[in-house]
Request: fold
Amino acid sequence: MNTRPSTEQSVDPQPARLRRLPVLGNAPEPTLPAIPSGQPIHDGLNRPITYLRISLTDRCNYRCTYCMPEEGVELALRSQVLSFEELETVVQALMRVGVRRVRLTGGEPTVRKDLLHLVERLGRLGLDDLALSTNGERLAELAGPLRQAGLDRLNVSLDTLDAAKFRQVTRHGHLDRVLAGLEAVRSAGFKSTKLNTVAMRGFNDDEVGALCRYAFERGFVPRFIELMPMAEGSLFYPGTFFPVAETRTILRHEFGALLDEQELPAESRPSAQPGVGPARYAVVSYQGAVHRVGLISAVSEPFCDTCNRVRLSATGELHACLAYDDAIDLRSVLRAHTSQSPDELLNVLAATARTGLQRKRLGHEFTPSGCGGPRKYMVSIGG
Ligand code: SAM
Ligand code: SF4
Reply:
């Protein structure tokens, strides 16, 4: 894989569609009417905020080339990272204003000490869905215990089925461990497990069919993600961007015509599945059964108009959008209000989040040549 940093940033013309896009977050103050406490947050596009992604740590046992440089990412101090108690408080507060689903992510969430204990605590809060994203390195030992602790679903990253390429893209990963982890996921009885592949031209575009077959044969759902220009495009290598339109072309070539969702029984339609988020799903036929394939197209076919998610960084910054650096500082609120009753603290946190999230931007400005991304790395915001 080409590992040179992008040189195209200064020459990329912004598409007309994005030039027209209003950026609410740049406005001085929102003019939206105040929303009464207890009611779900709706942002400026009337998008209800129901889904919270929590980064448990900005640390990782891998160094995927598109996500983190080998060295040089400034990591948070341990004292800045939210404790389990603080995380639980934030989740409870955001549940007061509409959050129903939580995903634990990072960095790599499985490197956070006592993860199972946190899953147990959050599992008792009455969320509709508690999920976790992982690189899979530790799943062989953790899948069963995570299920027992109350985790509902898992997403596992898998960019290639070739051990040497896997090592190349992750720098520190072991494909055999991840594949053993995926077997443990099946044995543990997780349903609707997604396998996330960042599609990259010249690296794994020749594996789209193989990755799908691997997933279909084991009851997993493959998903192909467009490369996003995080860290101001510094890890975005020229020519590697692979749009979902080309993934669709390969799917047609490998599996024949893409099927209409309506051809599926109602309960198996992509839109009826747990965890439906930014992915759009193609439906293909393989070995006499229908399967869905997720396509996450933040760059070439943005899905901002249906975005219902916000992200909490490991240090307590609530990001309304992955594509921007600005965030609402919930850690200061948490740590400044220790004298309040628990109920008052939840209300203050919920009100702070509500005010900030009403300013959630209408869209982002990622471009296929690596422009428009935030200054922060994916691991700093939380993927
Ligand atoms: N460590 C876990 C993992 O790898 O699944 C969870 C965190 S990781 C940041 C979450 C997802 O973000 C992974 O599927 C990863 O492939 C994806 N990701 C990281 N950097 C990306 C980038 N620049 N563009 C698109 N996806 C990216
Ligand atoms: Fe770590 Fe996940 Fe980023 Fe890879 S994508 S470096 S596994 S956080």
